[in-house]
């Protein structure tokens, strides 16, 4: 996704300032509050910012979500590794039984 230069400027402002009110954003970029709110809503729609009911906008924090996703992924991986280990044990048991049957068949 490629942002317009204006939206990139807003993202950079939020990186520097943290949280901004839509009215302050409008003054900063020299547009009407309605236009600034439109920019904020577009960034919100893209999932880049969060905006509260008072018109305060801030960058959306992905780090926490990424950490949660990583933990879920690690747990899933651990579960699969445990299942694979159990399946390998079952395969070894079946191989042993097959060897016994082969030996009985030859005797």
TrEMBL record:
Gene3D superfamilies: Winged helix-like DNA-binding domain superfamily/Winged helix DNA-binding domain. Pfam families: HTH_24 (PF13412). Residues 70-104 form a coiled coil. Keywords: Coiled coil. This is Winged helix-turn-helix transcriptional regulator. It comes from Saccharolobus solfataricus (strain ATCC 35092 / DSM 1617 / JCM 11322 / P2) (Sulfolobus solfataricus).
